[in-house]
Structures are given as structure tokens and as C-alpha cells.
Amino acid sequence: MADARANNGDSVAQPRLQAREVYQVLKDLALGVRNLHESRPGRWHEVSTGAMRLEVDGYTITLFKDAGVLDYCAACEAIDGRRADVHCWPGAGTDPLELLSVWERTQLEKVLAA
Asked: A Pfam family in this protein (predicted)?
């Protein structure tokens, strides 16, 4: 039986990126398993407060800095088109950055600052 939405011309919604998947990308970046491709090298140092867009092996990740400190993951889009943003992770402890251990987060910040 075909999906009713397909019959009336509406497109079927693409599944969202899960926080765990985004966390894994950030963890892999912190561990040197994935590669960082910034839009503008050195931009991390230029922004004290604001959004930072990163390209990480096919993922586009927007992180937010507040007063020079990595604050939260604002959005992510995978190469296959799946997306998620801060509204998809509303509960405490569900932001992909919050899933990182203290050590992983420190390593990530070192990679971003390099």
C-alpha cells in the first residue's frame, strides 16, 4: 500500500539528523579521524560571539560561540540532505556538544583554534 502523502503530491519528509550522529562527527573531528574544512581559515579566532560554519567531511555544522567559548551546536546538514538544528535538541543534555566528554570537547576546541 502506497503512502497517502505520495498519492496527493506531497513529498515525504526526510528523516532528521540525530544528535548522536552529529556528536560522532564532532568526536571524530576532535580525535583527528575526520577533516575540518573551514570557509575561511583563522575565522575561529576572529569571532568572539556568533555562529561559526564548518565543513567536516560532507557535513555542514554551525557552532555558536559566546564570549569566546564554544556554546552550542546551532545546526547540522549531512551530505545526503538530512538536517537538524537547535530546535531538534530541546532537552537538557541533548545538544551534540553536550554529549562530548570534557576531554573530547577540549580536543575539539584545540582543533578549531589551530
From this structure: DUF7693
